[in-house]
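Propose amino acids for all 284 sites.
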């Protein structure tokens, strides 16, 4: 049972990263920025086991309040940050069919793991633009939280990810296509990861933009096997195929509202329920 509890929270801080970063292959213009305050939530009683089969688990939830931002230092160089300022992970109590208590509920409140990135435009002012991003995953979250010590808001490991994005607009700039290829170097004997994805978006009206984002995370299985961890850190060798529709509504030239629903179409060691995100954004 402890193994399933730990697995339940393996996906928690990875779900917000299902989405490709805003901007795609286009560099962030000098002196311009994009900032978004979001509330993310997921609640699930189903789980993709290491075999890929869906199994029942005790209901688990996580809620994350985060700030995402990007700012252009030059016309080619920019900085990007994802900062989960508050994360709450909970686990429902476990009872028998006749109502006897097997295990009490548990909860933890903490920061999450931060992602800080440097983004550089490799090819600009062309029909197809390309940017490279170097991301540092900083372990600010709690990897042994709650009374049980198995609830996490972070994985306890420093990782470095190098990604390349290529993008092209179409239909007179109303639509765009982004592609992503990334390698994630993880520490603490976690397996490294290969990530790839794409995103298609289009302006629906003058105020509404829609997008569908797809991200595949694949373990290289070159680290230790944490199938039965005893210290409550996130499971190793997580894999998933995520599909995230998103809608953005611009209130004016600077402010807007963003909403998305993310689905894991398949996976290993991840929750098997949709996640929801709602945020407000500012463009400068």
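Proposal:
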């Amino acid at each position: 049972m402890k193994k399933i509890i730990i697995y339940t929270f393996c996906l928690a801080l990875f779900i917000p990263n299902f989405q490709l970063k805003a901007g795609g292959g286009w560099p962030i213009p000098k002196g311009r920025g994009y900032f978004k305050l979001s509330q993310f939530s997921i609640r699930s009683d189903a789980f993709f086991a290491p075999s890929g089969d869906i199994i029942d688990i005790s209901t688990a939830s996580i809620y994350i309040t985060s700030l995402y931002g990007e700012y252009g230092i030059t016309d080619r160089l920019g900085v990007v940050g994802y900062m989960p300022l508050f994360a709450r992970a909970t686990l429902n109590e476990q009872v028998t069919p006749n109502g006897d208590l097997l295990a009490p509920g548990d909860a933890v409140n903490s920061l999450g793991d931060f992602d800080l990135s440097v983004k550089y435009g490799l090819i600009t002012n062309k029909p197809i633009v390309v940017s490279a991003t170097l991301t540092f995953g900083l372990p600010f979250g709690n990897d042994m939280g709650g009374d049980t010590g198995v609830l996490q808001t972070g994985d306890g490991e420093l990782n470095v990810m190098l990604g390349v994005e290529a993008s092209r607009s179409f239909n007179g700039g109303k639509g765009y296509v982004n592609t992503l290829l990334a390698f994630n170097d993880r520490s603490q004997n976690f397996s490294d990861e290969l990530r790839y994805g794409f995103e298609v978006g289009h302006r629906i009206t003058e105020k509404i933009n829609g997008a569908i984002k797809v991200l595949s995370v694949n373990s290289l299985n070159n680290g230790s096997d944490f199938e039965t961890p005893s210290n409550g850190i996130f499971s190793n060798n997580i894999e998933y195929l995520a599909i995230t529709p998103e809608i953005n509504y611009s209130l004016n030239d600077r402010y807007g509202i963003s909403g998305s629903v993310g689905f894991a179409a398949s996976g290993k060691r991840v929750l098997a329920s949709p996640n929801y995100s709602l945020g407000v954004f500012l463009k400068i």
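Residues 2-8 form the longest helix (7 residues). The domain at 2-283 is CATH 2.40.160.40 (Porin).
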